[in-house]
Amino acid sequence: MSAFRRDRSLPDGLAAAVLLLAAGVFAGLGLAWWRDRVRRFETPAWVAERFVALAPEAPRTSDERWVVAIHPRCVHCQAHLRSLARRIARRSRPPTLAALIVDQPARPAPPELGVSLAGGAWWDSAQVWREAWGRRAYGETFRFDAGGRLLSATPAGVLPDSTRSRL
């Protein structure tokens, strides 16, 4: 019996080390998640000076600016932007639609998104969207008033107005 135990001691030690490592990783992830959840983020506000213009704005014709957070490789958020553009084009005074390119460390080329962006295209070079606003979901649409104050934020696939209808 003692020979059997001696042969198993190495695998038991290895198993204990792996279990300890897994518990440490799990605890580290939990701590990182907790720190992110308790961190106070600022309320989003549209201040053009915080972003880099990639495509020019047209003269404003609306009191509202809708800004969609876009990652260049996210086809889902780009499809959401195109759907929004189609839906608001029918309005007599559509909101000024803009794209905010996020999570790009180097300056991207002006995006070819297949829609007219009266609000222009902007690059979040300072990671305002993620670090200051605490946002994580690509395709999120932010409604700002003429003064840049946040009116609402909605996930991709939701028309950001009082109807709350799905696209």
Features:
6 strands, disordered C terminus, six-stranded mixed sheet, 167 residues, alpha/beta, single chain
Task: Give a nutshell description of this structure.
With 167 residues, the chain is an alpha/beta fold.
Compute the number of strand runs: 6
CATH class of the largest domain: Alpha Beta
Q: Structural class, judged by helices and strands?
A: alpha/beta
Strand residue content? 15-25%
Distance between the termini: 69 Å
Number of domains as seen in the coordinates = 2
Tell me the name of the CATH homologous superfamily of the largest domain.
Glutaredoxin
Evaluate the radius of gyration: 23 Å
Strand order of the largest sheet: 1-4-3-2-5-6
Biggest sheet overview: 6 strands, mixed
- The best one-word shape is elongated
Task: Write down the secondary-structure element order.
Answer: HEEHEEHEE
- How many alpha or pi helices? 3
Low-confidence stretches: 163-167
Q: Helix coverage percent of residues?
A: 25-40%
CATH T-level topology of the largest domain: Glutaredoxin
CATH architecture of the largest domain: 3-Layer(aba) Sandwich
Question: Overall mean pLDDT score?
Answer: 87
